[in-house]
Amino acid sequence: MTSAPDAGALPEAEVPPNAPTAKRDFALLWTGQSVSLFGDQFMTLALPLLAVTTLGASPAQAALLKFALFLPFLLLGLQAGAIVDRLPRLATMIGANTIQFFSFGAIWLLAAVDSLSFVTLFALITVSGVAVVFFQVAYTSYLPDLFKNTKDLHRGNARLALSESTSQAVGPMVGAPVIAFLGLVGAVAANTVGFAVSVVTLAMMKHKEPPRAKTERERGWMRKAIGEGLTFVRSHPILQPIMLCGTTYTLFLTMVTTSLVLYCKIELGLSTQWIGVVVGAAAAGYPIGNMISARLGERIGYEKALFISASISVTGILLMPAFGSLGGIPGTIGLIFGSIFHCVGEGSYSPTSLTLRQMVTPSELLGRVGSVQRFLIWGMISLGSLLASIATALVGLTGAMWIGAVGTVLCLPALLRRGMRAAVLNTAESKGDR
Asked: Which DSSP helix (H) or strand (E) runs through 205?
């Protein structure tokens, strides 16, 4: 049983050993995903700028590109979980990234021959978004097959989160000179190469997943499978508040992040290179948050760590438009400071919430619970982008930034629910914490 001072710590349960090839396969997964994530960050700058400067789209139209990328999470997110739970997860990841390779390859080729239209770009981004749905559901369900030990699982999640945060910090700063040297089309090509590297590293992994339980695909099987995932999340004392917080937070945060690039360009008058510095430096807090996440949870309890992390993040987001309103150099420096502060909180929150989700979810439900999370949270990215487009058209980029920033505060009450701490304790005890 867990003693009182360590009540919030993740359990070190008596579990089967990790997969024999866990270290090697994780290294390949980590490498390929890091390269792919780095390329994705080029798109943070390249896609809205490509739409506005090359295709003649308006800022409101450019905001719709993120809507297109994440719309499939609303349309297919729940179905993807039911399907992935019946398929080999590694093969699903390989197939999904292959589709993304061809989607961005098509954007690259069409743009290179000056045949790309905004409608075609929107359609290809949507196709890529469908692949992202299946990749992400399989991706977050695969790691527990490699690491059976809770500490190793949390360490793996933190390392993958560190790659994501590092790419967000460094990618835009490197992306700006890449765009300056290769052009916007070259940046798309770099992202395409990143997906090719990811496919190769995934194909080199050797771990054999445990066979899925064979179930008949009777009429209505998908509806039943989706219902099981939804019911599990809705009734769970840990998963429900975490996902409710994340859903609200992501909806309004997306309004901020969707508006940020064009806000810097149009409202602050920054060059492409300086926009890269602002966006990249804004994510510099993520690695700090990733590295402190486990220690923070062990010291004060994971339910308290989640609330403190979310509070830090919300405070930083509110500071962004506040400092940005100063304009000029003070506004730019203040915007960077607020963003870094926000990213420290988010960097601490993300791996902790993911590890808790993987801990409390049975293996046979990992795909479906992951799909509920992606449907709710990543689906909000699509809706948040749409809201950003509407707000930009009605009240301008500055107004969209303020609406999004103030809205993130609404995520905090969900984490104050009574009983969440007790649920974490019960989970630790049921896992056999020593």
From this structure: none
- What's the confidence (pLDDT) of residue 173? 64
pTM: 0.64
Given this model, what pLDDT does residue 96 score?
Answer: 92
CA separation for the pair 231, 78 (Å, rounded): 12
User: Does the pLDDT at position 238 exceed 70?
Assistant: yes
C-alpha torsion 379→381→384→388, nearest 10: -140
pLDDT of 420: 65
Q: What does pLDDT average to over the chain? A: 80
Reference 248, options 133, 384, 358; nearest CA is: 384
- Under 8 Å between Cβ of 142 and 358: no
* CB-based contacts of 20, cutoff 8 Å, min separation 6: 207
Is it true that domain 21-207+224-430 has CATH number 1.20.1250.20?
Answer: yes
In 3D, which of 171, 146, 189 has the Cα closest to residue 16? 146
Residue pair 12/432 in contact (Cβ under 8 Å)? The answer is no
What are φ and ψ of residue 88, in 5° steps? -60, 125
